[in-house]
Each structure stands twice: as C-alpha cells, then as structure tokens.
Amino acid sequence: MRILLDKFTKKFDDTVVINDMDLEIKDGELMALLGPSGCGKSTTLFSICGIYQCSGGRILFGDRDVSNVSSQQRNVGVVFQNYALYPHMSIYENIAFPLMVKKMDAAQIKKEVHAIAKLVHIGDLLERRPSQLSGGQQQRVALCRALVRRPDVLLLDEPLANLDAKLRLEMRSEIRRIQQETGITAILVTHDQVEAMSMCDRIALMDEGKVLQVTTPNDMYHNPQTDFVASFLGNPPIAFLEGEVAGNQVLLNGSQLKVALPSSIRQPDNGTKVRLGVRPELVGTDRGNAVAGRISFIETQGRENLYDLTLDNGAVLRSIQAVRSDISMGQTANWNIDTERVLVFDTNGQRLL
Ligand SMILES: Nc1ncnc2c1ncn2[C@@H]1O[C@H](COP(=O)(O)OP(=O)(O)OP(=O)(O)O)[C@@H](O)[C@H]1O
Ligand SMILES: [Mg+2]
User: Fold this and answer.
1) Is 191 found in the same domain as 89?
2) Which residues of the chain fall short of a pLDDT of 70?
3) CA-closest residue to ligand 1 atom 29
4) Does residue 246 fall inside a structural domain?
5) For residue 188, what are the β-bridge partners?
6) Which residue out of 14, 34, 41, 43 has the highest number of ligand 1 atoms within 8 Å of its CB and is therefore the one to mutate?
7) How many Å apart are CA 129 and CA 193, to the nearest integer?
C-alpha cells in the first residue's frame, strides 16, 4: 500500500513541528525516517498512524485520503520502542488480542496467531508470559501483535532502541526479512544511521521538520546534496576542510596546504570559499593529492585502525586503514587524499557539482 504525504503539516498549538512535507513511500517499500532528536520523526509517524491529526495537507494510503480517518480504521500495525506487552497475558493472548477486539472466531484466531508466530520464529514461546522472554523475544512478540491483523502498513518507531548491541544486529535483519516476506509497506523511525542504511530501501533524512533528501542508502552516502546530509551518514563521520578556490585547487584556510578539486565538478571562480568533505576511506590512499600532517590519534578497531591526521591549520582528517605497524602517535605523515572522490560544498552547505 503506497503512502503519500501531501503538504503534510503538523502544529502543536502555535508551534509548527512539520511544515508542508511531501513524501511518497512506495508499495512494499521499507522507508527510514532518519534525523536528529526532535526533528519530527515520531510526530510524522504518529500522524500517519492516526494518533495525531494533521494540521494541514493530506495523508493518503493508496488513493484513499485517510487524514480524517480514525487510527482503528486505518489498518496500521505499530511497534514502539517500549513495546508494552500485557504482562498478565500469555504470549499467545498478547498476539491474539487485536483479533479478539475484532471479534474474530476462536479457530480463525488460533490459525492466524500460529501463522504469524511461525513467520517471526517464536512459535515455541506462545505459552509463556512476557517476563519469561528476553528483550529480543519480547520485541518479536510486539512485531507479531502488529502484524497479526494483516495491516496495510507497518510503522516502527525506534523498535530496536531498547535492545543490546548483539540483539539489535539480529533484529535488524529479522525485521527486514519479515518485511520482505510479507511485502508490507513499512516506515522505520530511527536516529541511527547504521540502522537506516542497513535495513531500508530508501532513507528520508529529516531536520527541523523538513525532509532534506530522499534516496537509497548508497546514493545518500555517495551523493549527499548538503553537508548536513554528508555528516549524518558514515561512521566515523566525514571531515570538512575549509578553504578558497585557487585555480583547480583549494588553498586551505590558515594553511600552506592545497587540495586538488575533483575534475568532475564545474570549476568555481577563484576566491570562492568552499568546504571539502573528506570521508575516512579517502585518506591514506594510493592515489590523489598528498597532504602533510601529524598523527594525533590512533584507535584500534580490530581489522582496521582509525588514524587522525592533524594538519598545520589544526583541521583534522580521519583515515581508516589496515593496521599499520609503521605509524605511531605524534609522528608526521604525508598521506594522500583521493581528491577525485572528495565532496565539495559552498559555504551554505550546498553541494557543488
Ligand atoms: N504533544 C506535543 N506538544 C508539543 N510539542 C510537541 C509534542 N510532541 C512533540 N513535540 C515537539 O515536536 C518536535 C518533534 O518531536 P518528535 O517527538 O516528533 O521528534 P523525534 O524526531 O521523534 O525525536 P526523538 O529522536 O528524540 O524521538 C519537538 O520539538 C517536540 O518538542
Ligand atoms: Mg521520536
């Protein structure tokens, strides 16, 4: 079921939280709403769910305008961070509850609960109480409860935030598997870029109630339209170098260092102030433009190390490389930047192409 937000606006009293948002989630797609705390992700999700009413614009499911339809009538399944299972009920009863509310007959309920529990891999836990399950198992039950009514749309608000790192990893791929097997259209709200990148077909990156860019994880990583988007994706994050265009190079501020502009971009005028976005995998490569600096930080990550290279003007480049025994703290290094893959932004943060 396609979901369309058409100039969707949400205010609380006089405070505009979402202003004129346009967003389409395609049928069968898993879309991430990604953005910093307070940017309006949950507000958007609650409005799609019907918990909040729109203050302006429309929300469509397929071709049907659901803006004024109650939450119950929208046929959505929802999973929240604190999945709040009913503690006094068995797992079976927890999952069956939405169907009992709908007054489905007992035999049919049994069939539906067993089918969904099998899909979500908790078929052998149905007799237990929530307190007898692990966090990950409880989250699976919450997912079953959301899916058992066969909703048109699945809405997930930070569903993995309460799980430990290992379980989170496992549930990431599990939610993706279940979403793909059911073919359900789904929205995942998260502030975790890794979660959004690894689970979703596309990401809508939000800030201050606006969608900044909507595209696939890969495209958003390689082709961010603004420096904000570039800095939101990637771990360790992208580093920025400020400078001024001189010919086909950028002279870094307060520095003798020059960095070549990528040959693919339209040459900005001499003197144009720019921000160069340099991802850690572009530093210490075997091609590009060498810059001198001092190793100011080394972090072991197992297979690779993370190195900080502090330049003469105090700017810091990060580098991810296979562990090198020839590099130690405080030493100088002359490392290449793969300048053809550097991202160039103007001083307003807009990408220059
Ligand atoms: N019921 C409300 N009344 C007034 N303001 C609200 C209400 N709910 C949310 N807001 C405000 O709307 C903005 C967006 O909140 P929202 O909960 O949607 O953010 P979020 O992106 O989900 O953040 P987080 O990642 O922290 O969950 C915030 O500034 C918040 O204070
Ligand atoms: Mg939220």
Assistant:
1) yes
2) none
3) 38
4) yes
5) 32, 156
6) 43
7) 33
